[in-house]
Design goal:
seven-stranded antiparallel beta sheet, alpha+beta, single chain, 8 helices, 300 residues
Length: 300
């Protein structure tokens, strides 16, 4: 799908403390963040002009920077205000919010203690992460050959740019085969997540099962959906899940700020039908975020 290039748009971007015209928000090609992936970011959605779980996203951004060894020179409150200011400056009510912090160009090499830390925030209109018609039926995934690294090998709990390289490789490979996304295993061969979203399974015991996030991001949407399920009396089990257990799953769905709640119709040779729990979590999440409820979801 061809869209307008992200470098050539109208609007404003918050860059190091001030709103600047979109096309003027630039960094030098020798920025450390570009060469060595010393960058962290967030992805949040706005609904009706309000950014969902904004403070949690700002807190995680700062925490991610600390995991990479740098301090973002703005507080959670300042980042919250900057996100709201940028959203308003672009006149966006329903869209995406992308804060990103990175090391600058003062040093070039692995060592980068003296680099300046920059922060930028962009917002844009953005609809469904997956094709809406495909999403309603349930997207198709295939297991990627790339695996999530062990905690001893990477800052796995940071939302760090470098950790998404294998996600891009995985998603490109699966899209080339006609799938919408990839299922990623971890270094032990256990089910981890999709390329940009966490995963849940409804098993024959009627409970909602999800992998323990010990080597990948414990998503904010993931946490929200767990709370929503528990509020309905649905028991949530966080545990190690092996690939062969896909044969037992009745329903599967993904969660993420971009993906929201997305039904899964197939993983490899296994097939699933979006059912009652998937519909409940879809409608409950829409209600929590203040979205207009589709008729099919609200009937659940």
């Amino acid at each position: 799908m061809v869209t307008q290039p992200y470098h050539d748009r109208d609007g404003m971007i918050w860059h190091d403390g001030e709103l600047v015209p979109w096309r003027d928000a630039k960094l030098h090609v020798l920025s450390h963040g570009l060469h060595y992936a010393s960058a962290v970011f967030e992805g949040a959605r706005a609904y009706g002009g309000a950014i969902f779980k904004l403070t949690e996203h700002s807190q995680r951004l700062i925490a991610s920077g600390r995991m990479l060894g740098f301090e973002i020179p703005w507080t959670v409150e300042q980042i919250d205000r900057a996100c709201d200011e940028t959203l308003a400056a672009n006149g966006i009510r329903d869209g995406y919010v992308r804060p990103i912090a990175w090391r600058g160009s003062e040093m070039m090499g692995v060592s980068a203690q003296s680099t300046r830390i920059h922060l930028a925030i962009a917002t844009w209109q953005w609809g469904s992460y997956f094709n809406e018609e495909v999403k309603q039926k349930g997207i198709r995934l295939k297991t990627s050959p790339w695996r999530r690294p062990a905690p001893e090998c990477a800052p796995v709990h940071a939302k760090a740019s470098g950790l998404y390289m294998i996600c891009t490789l995985s998603k490109h490979a699966m899209e080339a085969e006609g799938y919408e996304d990839a299922l990623m295993l971890d270094y032990r061969g256990l089910i981890a997540e999709a390329t940009g979203a966490n995963i849940f399974f409804v098993m024959p015991d009627g409970r909602l099962h999800t992998p323990t996030p010990d080597c990948f991001l414990n998503g904010i949407t993931r946490q929200t959906v767990i709370q929503l399920a528990q509020a309905r009396g649905i028991e949530v089990v966080e545990r190690a899940i092996r690939p062969h257990e896909l044969a037992n799953a009745r329903e599967v769905f993904l969660t993420g700020s971009a993906a929201e709640v997305t039904p899964v119709g197939a993983i490899d040779e296994y097939r699933f039908t979006p059912g009652e729990i998937t519909r409940l979590m879809t409608s409950d999440y829409a209600r929590a975020t203040g979205q207009h409820l589709p008729v099919a979801a609200s009937a659940a």
